[in-house]
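[job 4417] fold queue: 2 targets
>>> target A
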Amino acid sequence: MGGAGGTAAALLRAGLLCASLPYSAVMRLRRWLYRRGVLPARSAGVPVICVGNLTTGGTGKTPMVAWVVRRLKDAGKTPAILTRGYKAVDGVSDEAELLGHLTGADVVVNGDRAAGAETALAGGADVLVMDDGYQHRRLRRDLDIVLVDAANPFGFGHCLPRGLLREPPGALRDAGAVVITRSDAVDADALERLRDRLRVLAPDCSLHAAVHRPADVIDADGQRHPAGALSGRKVLAFCGIAAPDSFFGTVEALGADLSATLALPDHVNYTDAVVAEVRRAADSAGADLLVTTQKDHVKLAGPDLGLDVWQLAVEMAVVDGEAELAAKIEAAAQG
C-alpha cells in the first residue's frame, strides 16, 4: 500500500492500481445511480442516522455510534442499532456485543439492513442508527455522519485494492456531517489542511473534530477505576483492532510500564492458539497485568490467559462543533 522500494514492489503497486481503477469507477457510478434515483432507496418508516466512513479499518465508528445513541436517548428517543456483524463467529459479532454493552440499546445484526430495520421496529425502536453503513445505499437515511481519521484520512490516496478507500473521496458530498477523528494525532497545520480539503469535497456539510479519550479502566471483577490506575503497572497490552498502535500509545500515556505489546489480526477470534500466544508474550515480558480493548474483552469470557485482564474504556469526545452535531442528530431523529 505504501512506498516500499524495489522493482517487485513497484510492479505490485502497478497491478493493484490497475485493479483499483475499475473498482473506483463502479463505485462512482453506483453512487451516481442512487443520487439520481435510478437505483431505489427504501424507507425504513422511521428516521435513520448512519455512521460510516470512506476507508477500511478503524476510524472510531463504534464509540461514535455510542455517542449518537446517548444523544438520542437524552432526547427521549428509543434508538436501535443496525449492524452487519462484520466477521461474526457463530452469529456473534464483537462489535455488536460491545455496542449493546456500551449503549443498552437493541442491536440488530443482519447483513440486509432493510430486514434488520423491520426487526428493530418490531422491537419498539423509533429511530435507527446504522453502524458502518455509508456504502449501503439501499436504506434511505435522514443523516449521514462520515468519520475521517486525521492520521490517514484518504487511505493512501487510492481505492481498494491499491489503497484503503472503499469509494472515491467525492462521495463525501452526500454527507450531512463529517467528523475528523483522532484529531489530536496530527499537528495544527496538518489538521487545517485536512479541513480545507474536506470543505472542498463536502461544501454543504458541517465539519467537526473529535478525539478518542480514555474514560476509565475496568478490572477483572468488572469494577471501574480511574484510567491512572494503570500507572506503574507492568503491562502486556494486546488487541485485535485495525489501529493497534493508537491503543498501545494510549496505554503507555496513562503511565503503564508497557513491557510488551501484541497486535493481533483485526476482529481476531480467541482460539486456543491465540490464547497461548498471548500467554507466551506475557510470560516472556514478565508482565503482571494484561490490558486490552473493550471490543476484544467481549470475546474473552471463557479463555484463561493466566493473568488478570483489564479493559481500557475509551469514549468519543467531540471537541469542535459538538452542539451543532447534537442539534443535527436531534433534528434528524424527528424525521
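>>> target B
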Amino acid sequence: MAPKARGKSAEAAETDASVALLPAGLRDVLPPRADWEALASESLLASFAAQGYARVKPPLIEFEETLLAGSGQDLAGQMFRVMDPVSQRMMGLRTDITLQVARIAGSRLKLAPRPLRLAYAGQVLRVRGTQLRPERQFAQAGFELIGAAALAADVEVALLAAEAVAKLGVAHLSLDITQPLLAPAIMASHGLEPRQAKAARRALDRKDAAELKAAAGAAGPDLLKLLSIAGPAPAAIKGLRALKLSAEAAAIVADLDQLVAQVSAAAPNLLLTLDPGEFRGFEYHTGISYTLFARNVRGELGRGGRYVTPAGETATGFTLYLDSVMRGLPAMPPRPLLYLPHGSSHAVAAKLRAEGHSTWAALESTGAEPRQAAKAAGCTHWWDGKAIRPV
C-alpha cells in the first residue's frame, strides 16, 4: 500500500508547535508523518531500483572544496560550514545530493561500466528557505544516469521520475520541459555581444517582453517568440519549428520534438508543457531539463536534467523533494495497531507479530475495559485472548 500524507491541519499544528523550540525553517517530524515519509522514500527507491539504479549513501558532511566543485558553486551561498577539528580543514553540510553522487561516480566508481545508474535518498540543509519552500532542512530522493549522451537517457529520466511519483499516489502530474541552451544558441546566431546577451537573458528570466525587445536587437523577434509559445508541449514545439533557426538551434528543437513524442507515447496521462525560454534554476544544466508539478500542490515536486559532472562526464538525473511529494498524497487511514491487554504472554505477542500484526502491549493494568483501553492508546484492534477484535 502506498504511503499517504496527513491532512493539512495536522501538519500545520505540528509546525506551529515547534516554532518556539527550533530555528526558523527547521521542525520536528512527528508520527505518523515520519513513518509515512520514510515509506514514501523507500517506495521511490524501489521504483528506481526496478529500473537498474543502485543505491549509494554519501555522507551528510564533507570537505567544502568537493561540495563546491564544478556546478556546486551555484549553491555556495546556501552551505553551512564548520571547521573539522581533526583535519583543520573547512567542511560543508550538503545542500544537494546530486553533486555528491557525481563525485562518487568520478572517483570511487570511475572504473564501473557506463552508463552508470545510481540512486539516493537523504536529508539536505540550506542556509535559507524560499517563498515556496521555507524549510531549510528537507529530504531528497533521486537518481542519476551518468555517462550516457543519447536522447534515450533524457526520456528514461523523465518517465522514471513521473512513474515513481505516480506509483505513490500523487495524481494530476505535469512535467514542464525546458532547454537552457536554446536561447543562447539563438543569440549566438544573431551575433549578440556578451553584454547584450546577458541583458537579453535577464529579460527572458523576468518574462519582460518590453525589456527583451529593447535588449535583444536582431534576436528580439525569435526570443519574444520563446515567451509567447510557452505552454502545452505539442503546440510549443509547433511554434518552435515555425521559426527560422540556425542549424544549432534547429537541432535542439528537433531533440525536444523527439522527447515530447516519446514521453507522450509512453505516458499519455502525463501533461507535458514546454517553456523554451526558461533558465532560472537551471544555470548549471547543459541540455533538456525538467520540473515536475502536481495540481493543487504548492511548489515543484522535483527537478532534473542534463549536466556535466566535475569529472567531465555527461549525465542526467532527477531530484524529488519529499516535503512537496507528501503534500500531493491523499490522507492515509491510521496504521493497523493491535492492543495486547496487560498479562498477554510474550509467546502470543510473538505469534501475532509473526503473522504481520503491529502490537502495542499494555505494561500495566489500567482497570479499563480492554476495548476502551485500546481506543485510549490509539490502537485500531485489540486481542481478547482468543481473537482479534476491532476497536
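[job 4417] complete. Note on B: The mean pLDDT is 91.
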